[in-house]
Amino acid sequence: MLEGIAHQAKEVTVCMAADTGAALTGLRVDGGVALSDELLQYQADLCGIAVQRPRDVETTALGAAIAAGLGAGVWSSIADIPSSGDDIERTFEPAICEE
Q: How many Cβ atoms are within 10 Å of 34's Cβ, its own excluded?
């Protein structure tokens, strides 16, 4: 199952690069499954890019709160939202060659 997730992410990154003409240089992940070191290392290996996991992997509620705050006028733009910083817990670097 974890390998399937990594392969789906690879397909998405390939499509994004094809659509934009720009290759990805890294990937930030979140959600409960992001707690799997095995998945994130496989994803880094498969995509050939660094995969970063934040300390707080449950960011769905934060995103909803930010959207609500923007909608309610707490902030006038995304630039006004205080940053919690790039609190990266771990970065997974590709460990296999492309071949």
A: 21
* Angstrom distance (rounded) from CA 70 to CA 22: 29
Give the mean pLDDT per block of 10 residues along the chain (99 residues): 93 94 91 94 95 89 89 92 80 87
**How many C-beta atoms lie closer than 10 Å to residue 98's C-beta?**
6
Pairwise CA distance, residues 89 & 81, whole Å: 22
Of 84, 95, 90, the C-alpha closest to 35 is 90
Q: What are phi and psi of 51, to 5 degrees?
A: -120, 125
Q: How far apart are CA 11 and CA 46, in angstroms?
A: 10
Q: Side-chain half-sphere of 73: how many Cα atoms within 13 Å?
A: 0
pTM (2 decimals)?
Answer: 0.77
